[in-house]
């Protein structure tokens, strides 16, 4: 349940950004997470809810946007987006190699934007 | 209003991890972050390593556990300096905990610093602790499919230790399978089949440590 620690870092960043822009009320925060990270979106949403209870951020929604996986084939070097990516089995449509590709997208974890008043 | 942000959520941890890395590099300390399930033998591996290499290097340990100082006591019995961090239920260490623990050490004296993370194959992987290398430790009673089930750890680790090899006759553990999947994720990863009970395979691990320290210092 490392999402608890991630939620508390997220809340700190949100608070900084709200202060920077003179906003006092958060409506929505969007987090982008790669499909290959160890993040469980529901767990992060739960952790966010728990930690914002009874605070000015309590009414805000946390939107989780998944970033799909793209890789450069470890064999032929061509880029592709696997249908059902897991780290072991991503057959390259060009040369058939199944693993050891370079992951280009799918490992991100960042706060994308806020909607606030 | 819409506020565009684009900030890495773990930026505070990562920034402090970079500061730690700088500090460790300045003091020429090799830092290893040991990650495994509870009970795989992290503390036993440390006890053996600290005892067997104590005339060669000055080593120190930061112990992470939810509760108790049991492991720090075991490790300190070898003569090495050990500091316990209790996470009070937290499932991983982070860089600010490491930074705080460093107050207890004289960095000038240390060659190798081991961080024994909280027993967990998922959460510790996400938090950079300023280490040079993550080491994945897996014991044979746990099953040979761990690299398949927890791929991110094995992908991010620089070596895998397969511990409790003395139990191989009694469990269905396919060393070749575990090694094959781990090295699919990470093709250059060395694998050490060890028993902290009999001492089997430890020399390979020690040689890897010697090389890693040499490389860091040259």
Question: If you had to describe this structure to a student in words, what would you say it looks like?
Answer:
The complex is a heterodimer of chains A (117) and B (218). By secondary structure, chain A is of the alpha+beta class. Chain A is built from two helices and six strands, in the order αβαβββββ. In chain A, the strands form two sheets. In chain A, strands 2-1-6 form a three-stranded mixed beta sheet, covered by helices on one side. Chain A has a three-stranded antiparallel beta sheet with strand order 4-3-5, with no helix packed on it. In chain A, helix 1 (3-20) crosses helix 2. Chain A is elongated. The two termini of chain A are 31 Å apart. With 218 residues, chain B is of the alpha/beta class. Chain B is 36% helix and 21% strand. A seven-stranded parallel beta sheet of chain B has the order 4-3-5-2-6-7-8, with helices on both faces. In chain B, helix 3 (70-76) links the parallel strand 3 and strand 4. The longest helix of chain B is centred in the N-terminal third of the chain and has 16 residues, at 11-26. The mean pLDDT of chain B is 96. Strand 6 of chain A pairs antiparallel with strand 1 of chain B.
């Amino acid at each position: 349940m490392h999402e608890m620690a991630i939620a508390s870092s997220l809340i700190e960043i949100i608070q900084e950004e709200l202060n920077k822009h003179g906003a006092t009320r958060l409506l929505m925060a969007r987090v982008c997470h790669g499909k290959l990270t160890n993040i469980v979106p529901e767990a992060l949403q739960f952790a966010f809810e728990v930690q914002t209870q009874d605070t000015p951020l309590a009414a805000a929604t946390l939107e989780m946007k998944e970033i799909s996986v793209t890789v450069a084939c470890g064999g032929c070097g061509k880029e592709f987006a696997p249908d059902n990516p897991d780290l072991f089995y991503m057959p390259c449509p060009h040369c058939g190699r199944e693993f050891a590709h370079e992951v280009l997208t799918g490992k991100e974890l960042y706060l994308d934007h806020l909607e606030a008043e | 209003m819409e506020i565009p942000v684009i900030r890495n959520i773990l930026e505070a941890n990562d920034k402090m991890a970079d500061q730690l890395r700088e500090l460790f590099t300045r003091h020429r300390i090799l830092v290893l972050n040991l990650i495994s399930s509870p009970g795989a033998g992290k503390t036993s591996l440390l006890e053996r390593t600290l005892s067997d290499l104590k005339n060669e290097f000055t080593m120190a340990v930061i112990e992470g556990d939810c509760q108790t100082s049991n492991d720090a006591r075991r490790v300190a019995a070898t003569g090495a300096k050990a500091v316990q961090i209790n996470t009070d239920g937290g499932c991983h260490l982070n860089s600010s905990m490491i930074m705080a623990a460093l107050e207890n050490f004289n960095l000038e004296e240390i060659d190798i610093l081991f961080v024994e993370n909280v027993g967990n194959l998922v959460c510790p992987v996400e938090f950079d602790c300023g280490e040079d290398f993550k080491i994945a430790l897996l014991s044979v009673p746990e099953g040979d499919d761990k690299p398949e089930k927890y791929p991110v750890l094995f992908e991010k680790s620089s070596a895998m230790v397969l511990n409790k090899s003395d139990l191989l006759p009694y469990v269905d553990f396919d060393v070749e399978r575990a090694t094959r999947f781990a090295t699919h994720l990470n093709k250059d990863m060395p694998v050490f089949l060890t028993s902290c009970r009999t001492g089997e395979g430890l020399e390979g691990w020690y040689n890897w440590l010697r090389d890693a320290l040499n490389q860091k210092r040259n």
